[in-house]
């Protein structure tokens, strides 16, 4: 045991705990990471430190740091914060939706207005290919295009460089959450904090 005379915390989530939206987001982030992280067997002497979880915890710590900063500036939009967090998490977990090219015909989507997220195919589709799909979990065109733009912003900037995403259709946050659930075989109802956020 060690005694210390003085203890100065390096970082405290001072503003998050005074802002109920930010606090609910923090609960949701923690719930998401808890669900993704495997349980550590502390009694297994042969288990080495598992580095595969480091990326996950890096996203979490970046997310909490970002949330604290936004709450301190009193500019904490739950839709924007959740989309940034999920986008970074999907990149880190290797299930970020195929975005630059159509998941079916490989056409570059940059200049196409008709872009749709097809959740059960793990990526975006052009309008032409979408018409050939008989059954698919997909967005409408406006939301598809907006999510395409937003995920581009998230993927191409470092976490702390991002401020607030300009979101026209708040539904895109729900769509992205369902995309995340689909990838990891969760149900939205598995996350108790979700209803406090969206
Ligand atoms: Zn296509």
What does this structure look like?
- 45% of the residues lie in helices and 4% in strands.
- By secondary structure, the chain is mostly helical.
- It has one domain (16-37, 53-189).
- Strands 1-2 form a two-stranded antiparallel sheet.
- Helix 1 packs antiparallel against helix 2 and helix 2 (54-72) packs antiparallel against helix 3 (78-92).
- The protein starts with 19 loop residues before the first helix and ends with a helix.
- Zinc ion (ZN) is lined by residues 102, 104-105, 107, 125-126, 128-129.
Strand content: under 5%
Helix percent reads 40-55%
- From the N-terminal CA to the C-terminal CA, the straight-line distance is 45 Å
User: What's the gyration radius in Å?
Assistant: 19 Å
Give unreliable regions as ranges: none
Q: Mean of residue pLDDT? A: 91
Order of helices and strands: HHHEEHHHH
Record the strand order, biggest sheet. 1-2
Keywords:
single chain; 198 residues
In short:
The protein is mainly α. The chain is 45% helix and 4% strand. The radius of gyration is 19 Å and the shape is globular.
Give the SSE layout.
Layout: H1 20-36, H2 54-72, H3 78-92, E1 115-118, E2 123-126, H4 127-131, H5 141-155, H6 171-184, H7 194-197
Antiparallel strand pairs: 1-2
The chain binds zinc ion (ZN).
Zinc ion binds at residues 102, 104-105, 107, 125-126, 128-129.
């Amino acid at each position: 045991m060690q005694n210390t005379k003085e203890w100065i915390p390096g970082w405290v989530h001072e503003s998050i705990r005074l802002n109920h939206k930010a606090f609910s987001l923090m609960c949701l982030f923690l719930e998401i990471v808890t669900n993704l992280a495997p349980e550590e067997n502390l009694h297994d002497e042969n288990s080495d430190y598992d580095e595969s979880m480091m990326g996950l915890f890096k996203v979490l710590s970046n997310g909490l740091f970002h949330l604290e900063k936004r709450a301190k500036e009193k500019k904490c939009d739950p839709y924007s914060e959740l989309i940034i967090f999920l986008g970074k998490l999907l990149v880190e977990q290797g299930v970020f939706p195929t975005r630059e090219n159509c998941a079916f015909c490989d056409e570059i989507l940059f200049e196409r207005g008709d872009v749709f997220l097809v959740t059960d195919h793990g990526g975006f589709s052009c309008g032409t290919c979408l018409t050939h799909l008989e059954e698919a979990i997909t967005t409408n065109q406006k939301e598809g295009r907006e999510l395409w733009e937003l995920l581009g912003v998230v993927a191409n900037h470092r976490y702390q460089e991002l401020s607030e995403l300009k979101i026209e259709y708040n539904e895109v946050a729900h769509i992205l959450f369902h995309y995340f659930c689909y990838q990891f075989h969760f149900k939205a109802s598995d996350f108790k904090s979700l209803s406090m956020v969206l």
